[in-house]
Amino acid sequence: MDQLSEVERAEAWFRRRGLPLVVRRRDRGVDLLPRATPSLVFFLLVEPILQILAYVVDRVGALWPGEGRESTGFALVVLGLTVGALVVPPLGGWLVSRSMRRLGDRGQMLVAVGVLAVTVAVLVVEQVTGLHEQPFWVSATVTASSVALLLLLTYLGAGSILAWAARVAVKQVNAVGTLASKALPLLMVVILLSFIAAEVWQLVDPRHMDRARLWGVVGFLVLLGALFLRAVVSDEMRELERQQAAGTV
Questions:
Q1: Dist. CA 202–CA 211, nearest whole Å
Q2: How far apart, in whole angstroms, are the C-alpha atoms of residue 81 and residue 73?
Q3: Tens of pLDDT, residues 153-196
């Protein structure tokens, strides 16, 4: 039993680090539906929003007679639906994933079945309200195919890879502020001497600004950048040495 739990912990470790194919093949289908539930929630949220957006765009003349696409209301609705399609589905999938981690196996399965039931209910509501113009069997086939595709991608480990990539991307975004603060002095010098002073450079008399002086200015900027790079690399190396000495690397 201890050995089995150790193997499960090792496989979970690989999944968290975006290496799902290392997991044994027979274990990839374990708890497949609960693992696919966050992606199903994403699909459940994004599909109606896109349907409503398409409905508004197709019937803009009837909804805003006279103004049409020039209407402020149309622009606000399209903007709101677009932002909603970009924000709400990922946020919903993340919240469901985080909530399911606190549940047991039975609770996770109940949530997964509930999400499937809501997906079917949303399909029926969209058909009744006219958001789907095609026959019901076509919409049902498309929805079933989408769910099957999500299950297949979950089996192949696409969710683990995307989750790992998202975590790494967030960490890199957090590091942008530090990198920008370190590069800010050199960036300000380049902006001052190139973009802001562009008109001054254009007014320089060629008789007083020969090729040698021009290359001298370029060399000065290169030297300034090299000194700045040396200072930054030196700081990074000292930080790396401290981490190695502390055993965190």
A1: 14
A2: 12
A3: 888 777 778 878 877 777 777 667 666 777 777 777 777 766 66
